[in-house]
Amino acid sequence: MSPSAAGALAVLRERDFRRFFIGQSASLLGDGMVGVALAFAVLRLTGSPADLGYVLAARSIPMVAGLLIGGVVADRLPRRRIMVTADLARFLGQGTMATLLISGHAAIWQLIALQALHGAAAAAFNPASTGLVPSIVAGGRLQQANALRGLAISIGDIAGPVLAGVLVAAASPGWAIAADAATFAISAVMLARLRPPAHRPPPAQSFMRDLREGWTEFSSRVWVWTVVTVASLTNMLFAAFLVLGPVLSERSLGGPAAWATIQAVLGAGSVLGGIAALHIRARRPLRAGVLALTLCPLPTLGLAAHLPAVAVAGLAFLCGLGLTVFNALWETALQHHIADKALSRVSAYDWFGSLACQPIGQATAGPLAAVLGIYPTLWLAGVSQVALSLATLAIPAIRRLPAGIPNAQTPVRQES
């Protein structure tokens, strides 16, 4: 291994992060499987793009609605305990869904209810996760830790759809969802073995005051709320690709195998993005991140242009690369510039804002395509994403944000 590669991976020498990374890698593999499995489970039950949008929205709505509560709770209670509980809830929910699908007794309302449970658990898990990482990683290795997590997402996005495609073709979507349930159990076990610094609860005060303090930290930074607003609109528009892509794959691109391939190649691009993020040393990290984000609309535009599956997959590769680079730089900026005492609350506002419009996109993509047509809907979504990304670069606070140093108020691990 070269010295530069060894340095980039040095964070894995830290025991707690290594355990965290193993657990996250397992559950993220399951996440990569469930997108393909859930899409074809719904389409085989009813054949309705609108029903698929409703099931996806059912997970997003409680996740968005619960994020602010999750952020306050994660700044008050031990974050590791919250994450273990959330993983166990998702293990039970996905396991129940798998049982219903495999036994042939599933109904759309049941999938909606179980995805709502999944979303509520994620609302607790995500802010706690962002707040936990700085306490189990040396400050100088935060970007490497975030990049490795992005790399785990990417590998899951490659292997997950491939494995799901095999299981869907050979057996049924239920078996892929059963595998996803098992990965949450693995994650819960690894998280339970972490030994982060002792939790020091903040002074007792009302929930609303906690919420207002988090809002002040969030809204006082132009670069934070601007990026989150743009991310929210972009996620809403990208839902057209996620909802209409499986429909076009089923009709004209080659079925589940084609959609699984597109998703897997998107993951391959994310792997390259994760590797790049391990080594990036940008003086203006958000400017670099937003430039990378301009690649994300490409697969939506590829579907709109009637390109074949192989070409859409190539554009998805670039999308995955850009998204992973952006996410690593963004998470690191938050962890460096936001004090630990407010980090989970700011992260909750970040997650809340970024995902607030996603259920709208998921629930309306199908009905909008029924009115405008699938291809005009994809054109509208793709072009709008391009315009948003370019507009973001016009904001001085984003272009000029310097590379951060670990916040002095954040109790990070010392380098070993």
What report would you give on this structure?
With 416 residues, the chain is mainly α. It has a single domain, classed as MFS general substrate transporter like domains (Growth Hormone, Chain: A, Up-down Bundle). The protein contains 17 helices and no strands. The two termini are 20 Å apart. The C terminus is likely disordered.
Question: What's the SSE blueprint?
Answer:
Elements: H1 3-8, H2 15-45, H3 49-76, H4 79-103, H5 108-136, H6 142-170, H7 173-192, H8 207-219, H9 222-253, H10 256-279, H11 285-293, H12 298-304, H13 309-337, H14 340-356, H15 358-372, H16 374-392, H17 396-399
Helix pairs in contact: 2-3, 2-6, 2-7, 3-5, 3-14, 3-15, 4-5, 4-7, 5-14, 6-7, 6-10, 6-13, 8-14, 9-10, 9-14, 9-15, 9-16, 10-13, 11-13, 12-13, 12-16, 15-16
Per CATH, the superfamily is MFS general substrate transporter like domains
In terms of DSSP E residues, the strand content is under 5%
Total count of domains: 1
Percent range of helical residues: over 70%
Q: What profile does the largest beta sheet have?
A: none
Number of helices: 17
**Radius of gyration, taken over Cα atoms and rounded to an integer in Å:** 20 Å
The helix-and-strand class reads mainly alpha
The termini sit apart by: 20 Å
Overall pLDDT confidence: 82
